[in-house]
Amino acid sequence: MNRSALRLYRLLLRLLPSDLYRAHGAEMAELFEGELAAARARGPGPALITCLIAIWDLIRCAPREHLRRRRHRRPRERTMQTVLADVRFALRTFTRQKGATALILLTLTLAVAANGAVFTLLDGLFFRPFPFPSPERLVHVNERAPRWNLEYVGINYPDFHVWREHTTSFEAMALVQPTNVNISDGVTAERVRGAFVTHDFAATLGVRPVLGRTFTAEEDRPNPPEVVVIGYGLWQTRFGGARDVIGRSFRVNSEPHEIIGVLPPQATFPGEVALWLPAGGDPAQAWQSYAYDGVARLKPGVTLAQAEQDLLQAHASIFAERDTGRVVTPFVIPLRDRFVADFRVMGGALGAAVVLVLLVACANVASAMLARAVFRQREMGIRMAIGASGRRLTRQLLTESLVLAAIAGVAGTVLGVWGVRALVASAEGVLPLWVRLDGTVRAALFGVSVVLGTAVLFGLFPSLQARRVDLRSALSSGARTSGSVPQRRMLDALVIVEVMLAAVLLVAGGLLVRGYDRLLDVSPGFQLDGIASFGVVLPEARYPDGPAQAALYNRVLERLRAIPGVESAAAITCPPLTCHWGSFLEAEGGAPPRRDEPDPVTLVRVATGDYFRSVGTPLVHGRFYTDAEGDTVGYRPIVVNEGFARRFWPGEANPVGRRVKFRGDTTNQWFTVLGVTRDERHYGLHEPPRPGIYTSLRSWGGTSSMRFVARTSGDPEVLFAGMRRVVAELDPELPVYQVQTMRRALDRSLAPRRLVVTALALFGAIALVLAVTGVYAVVSYVVGRRRHELGIRMALGAQRGQVLRLVVGHGLRLVAVGLVLGVPAALGAAKRLSSLLEGVSEQDVATYASVIVLLTLTGVAAAMLPARRAANAAPIAAVNEEG
Amino acid sequence: MRRPWFYILLSLAERDRHGLGIMRDVLELTEGEFRLWPVMLYGSLEELREQGWIRALEAPPADADDASARKKWFRITPNGRRALAAEVVRMGETVRVAQRRLAHSGTST
To answer: Does the structure show a pLDDT above 90 at A585?
Structure first.
C-alpha cells in the first residue's frame, strides 16, 4: 500500500504546472513519503488520513498554481475579445481613411464579382461534368465533309448501322435527333422539344427510367410502333407524377402514343428534351439525309484516337461501296467539344481577362496597403514601444485585411450572382441548352478564397515590415523623410504591373469593340426592323399533302394580312437566323465538281412571293416570282443569291434564265433562275453567307413545316398576340412556336460576341481606373515622404513648375515603363483574339495609340493632384512640421 | 498576508532552511497546529521567491548533513524581512483594535 500510494501521489503531482513539478516534484514526493512513513507507524488509520489530506492539498492547490501562472505571464486577453477589438479597431481605421478604404473595397468587390460571374460561366460550359455515370467516357460521334464546307454534317442512319455492327471500342453507340413535337391531350396543345433516339440511347448515357422501360431494339425498326418515353418534367406537369401513367395514351403530333416509360430528371440531353420517340431508322434505304447526332460511350481504357481508328476501319466498307469520293468521314471528339467549340476563344478571352483584372486589383490593393503601412509606421512603432508583440501587430493587420476581404467577398459574391443572372438573361438561346449556370456556390467559394488569399498576402507583407520597424527611427518625427528604398521599389513595381496589365486589357477591349462595330456595319441583306415571325408544324395526320398544307398556309396569310398594322405577310420555310436546310444542286450543262474541288451545300428555302417584299430583299437582276407562278411539273422559277450565281456561273454577269436541278435527280426537274438577290447573312452577321435559292410553294409541292413573317411600320411585338390568335382560330390543336422579332433574333445571334466585347471593355475600364488610382497612390505616397525635402527645395528657391515636374515625372516614368512592357504583351494577347476581330487588324495602330494616349494622360492627371498639393504647400510649413 | 507565507517567512527569519525543515519548524512553532502539506509548501515557496521575499540558495550551508545537502535551501531577503515586520505590525494593530473593541463591548454584554 505504501508504495502504491507513493506511486499514485507521484502521478498526481503531474497535474501541477510543469515548472513547479520540475523544480520541486522530487522533494514534494520525498516529503510526502516521510509523512506517510511517520503516519504508518501510528497505524493504518492515520496513514490513510495522511494520504487523503496530501491528495486534498494537491487538488486544492493545483488549480491555484495554474491560474497564478496564467495571470503572471503576458496578459493574454480572451481570444474572442481580442478579435472583436481588432475588428472594431479595423473598422475605425477604415472610417478614418474613407477614400482609400472605399477604393480598396470597390476594386476587390468588382474583381470578386467579375471572377464569380466568369467562373460560373466557364464552369457551366467547360468543367461541370454531364450528369451521367462516368461522363468522361461519353463521346460525340459525327461526320465531316470539308468539300461541302461542313464541319458537322450529321450522321446518316446507314453509316451508323455499319459502325454499330463493326466497331469494338464502344460500350454503346446511339443516335439522337432533337425535334420539336406538338403534344396535346385533346384540350390544349403545346410544342415541346423531343428527340428521336435509337434504342441504345439510354444505355449510352447510362440512365435508367424511373418508371417503365425505354425502347427495345424491336421498337427501333422502320415504321416504329406508336410508343413514347416521357421526361420527368412532362410526367410532373402533365400527369402530376401519377404512377399509373405507364400504358396511358398521349397525343404526339396528333397521333396517339402509348407511354412506356418515364425518364429521370437529368435525362434531358442534349438539352430540354421532354420526350423520346424511337428513331426507327432503315439501314437498307440508300439516300438518307445526314440528320443525326451521335453519342457513344467508350469502353474503359479506350482512348479517343483508338476509338476513331476503330470507327474509320468500320467506315472503310462505306468508302468502298457508297461514298467512293470519300467525301464524308466520321470522327470522334469528347462530347463537350461538340457544343463548346464556339465558346473556346470567347471563354479563353474572358477567363484570361478576368484573371488579369484580379491581378490588377490585387496589385492595387497591395500597393494601397503597403503605402498605408508605411504611413502607419509611426503608429506601429508606438504600439511596439508600449509593449505590443510582433504577433499581436501581425494579427491586427491581418484582421484589417480579412475584414476588408470579408466585406468585399460578400459584396462581390452578391454582385457576381446578380451578374450571372444578367448573363443568363442576355445569353438566352445562345448557350448550349444543357449548360447549367447554377455553380454560384462554387463560384462564391472561389471568389472568397481568392479574396482570402489576397488578404493574407497583402496583409502579411506590411505586417512583416511593421515587425522589422526600427523603433527609434519610427518614433522620431523626422522618420518620414527617410523613405526606405526597397519599399518604394516595391510600390513602383506594383504600379508598373498595374499599368502593364491595364494596357493589355484596354487594347483587347478596344480591338474587340472596333471589331464589333465593324460587325454591326455589315449589311444583313434583309430588313431587321418591324418584322415578326413564328413557326408552325403541321401534323401529317390532318395535313397529309401539299394542297392541304398550302390551303392552311394561305388562310393563315389572309388573316395575318387582316391584322391592323400588318403591311405585308409571307411564309418561308427558314427565314434568316432560324433554321437551315441544305442540299446539293447542279447547273444545266455544268460539269459536276471534281474530287478536289470544294462543293459547298446550297441553302434551300421555300417561300411565298410576298416574302421578298416583306423583308426587303435587295434585287440585283431579273424579278421575284409570284405565288401564281410555278408548278411541280413543268416551269419552276427560283430566285438565287449572288453567292449561288458566282458558284455556278462564275464570270457571268446575269444568270437569269439559267437552269439548275438537284444532284442525283434523274427525272430532270429543272428550276429556272428568275432573279438574283444580294447575299443574305442567313446565319448571323458574323457568319459568312452561303449560296442559296428560294422557290415557290407551288413549285416545291408541299412542306409540313413553315414560318410566317409579317411586317409592320410600328413595334412588331404588338403583332404577337394577333399571330397566335390567327392560328388558334384556324386550328386550336396547332401550337405556334418561336414567336420573335427579326431584331431580337439578330441580337441573340450576336449575344456571345456582345458578351465578350462588353465584358472586356468593362474589364479594361476597371483596369484603367485601378492603374490610375495606383499611380495616384504612389505619387501621393512619394509626395508625403518627400514633403520635407520639397519644402526645403522651395525654400531655397525652386520654382513651382520644377516641383510639379519632379513629382509628375515620377508618375509618368512608371506609366512609361508599364506601357513599354504592356504593348508587346497586348500584341501577344491580341493574336489570340483574331477570330473575334472581324477584319480589324490585331495590330490596329489607332487602338494602340489611343490606349497609350489614354493611359499617359490619365496617369499625368493622377500624378498632378498630389503634385499640386505639394507645390502649393507653404514651404516653411513643410520644413517646420518635421522640426 | 496568507498564512503559509507568514509562517514560512517567520521560519526563515531564524535561519536558512530547506522545504522539509520549514515544514517541521512551522509544525513545531505552531505546536502542531499548522502543518504545511507539500503542494501548499512548495507552491508558496515559489510565490515568495517570485515576490522577491525569499531566494533559493546556490549551495547548501557547510554544516548541512548529507540528506539535507541534496535539498534546495531558502533564505529570507531584506525585502522579505521588511514585509514580515510590516505584517507583524499590522497584525499587532489588528489585535489591539480588536481587543479595545472587545473590552468595551464586553461590558455591555
So the answer is: no
Q: What pairing do the DSSP bridges indicate for beta strands A737-741 and A531-537? A: antiparallel
Q: What is the pLDDT of residue A523?
A: 85
Instruction: Identify the DSSP state of A442.
Output: H
Quick one: A171 exposed, middle or buried, by C-beta within 10 A (0-12, 13-18, 19+)?
middle
What Cα–Cα distance (Å) separates residue A292 from each residue in A158, A175, A197, A230?
11, 6, 9, 20
Q: How far apart are CA A760 and CA A193, in angstroms?
A: 35
pLDDT tens by residue, A636-656: 899 999 999 998 888 888 889
Cα nearest neighbour of B20 on chain A: A31
Dihedral class, residue A776 (left if φ above 0, else alpha if ψ from -120 to 50, else beta): alpha
- CA–chain centroid gap for A450, Å, is 18
Q: Do strands A227-230 and A255-262 pair parallel, antiparallel, or not at all (unpaired)?
A: parallel
* Closest listed residue to residue A542, CA positions, set A736, A731, A279: A731
Is cis: bond before A593, omega within 30 of 0?
no
- Is the CB of A31 inside 8 Å of chain B's CB atoms? yes
Give the Cα separation of A677 and A603 in Å (integer).
14
Q: Maximum CA pair distance of chain A? A: 139
Q: What ipTM was reported for this prediction?
A: 0.85
CA distance A653 to A656: 9
In degrees and rounded to multiples of 5, residue A662 shows phi and psi of -70, 140
Q: What are φ and ψ of residue B32, in 5° steps?
A: 75, 10
* Residue whose C-alpha is closest to residue A157's, from A284, A245, A244: A284
- Which long-range contacts link A539-543 to residues 24+ away (Cβ below 8 Å)? A539/A182, A539/A253, A539/A254, A539/A255, A539/A704, A539/A733, A540/A253, A540/A254, A540/A704, A541/A253, A541/A254, A541/A255, A542/A254, A542/A731, A543/A704
Q: Is B52 on the interface with A (CB under 8 A)?
A: no
Q: What is the pTM of this model?
A: 0.65
A636 to A431, A493, A670, A698: CA distances (angstroms): 40, 74, 7, 8
* Cβ neighbourhood burial of A787 (10 Å; 0-12, 13-18, 19+): buried
As given in the structure block, the three cell numbers for residue A211 are 418508371
Element spanning A712, H or E: strand A705-712
Of residues B47, B50, B71, nearest to A27 (C-beta): B71
- β-pairing, A566-572 vs A189-197, is unpaired
Cell 507539500 -> residue: B38
CB nearest to A28's CB, from B18, B39, B50: B39
Interface check for A54 against chain B (CB to CB < 8 A): the answer is: yes
The secondary element (H helix, E strand) that includes residue A286 is none
A59-68, A266-275, A402-411, B6-15: range with highest mean pLDDT: B6-15
Q: CA-to-CA distance for B7 and B28, rounded, in angstroms? A: 11
